[in-house]
Specification:
With about 80 residues, the chain is an all-alpha fold. About 75% of the residues lie in helices and about 0% in strands. The relative contact order is 0.16.
Length: about 80
């Protein structure tokens, strides 16, 4: 599940970069196909971020600490030696 979140984050970054560069190059080269493709990439970027956010929230709710950052920094009330 953590892999899906990481993959969708990287994919959304790539889509956002393609949307920005594709629209600029498409406008500069006067290539409407490239501008349309960049627009579709811009439409997909929030969807990829939504998937990534859903995976993150699901991991938090199910107490899945396999996501490295949480495992290293989280202190839960039922963890031995944690305050509280």
């Amino acid at each position: 599940m953590a892999d899906l979140g990481s993959i969708t984050l990287l994919l959304s970054l790539a889509l956002a970069a393609y949307a920005a560069l594709g629209s600029l190059v498409g406008q500069w080269k006067r290539a409407p196909e490239l501008v349309i493709s960049a627009r579709y990439a811009a439409y997909l970027t929030p969807l990829m971020l939504a998937v990534s956010t859903t995976v993150l929230v699901a991991a938090f709710v199910t107490h899945n600490l396999n996501c490295g950052t949480w495992r290293d920094t989280a202190t839960w009330p039922w963890t031995p030696g944690s305050p509280g």
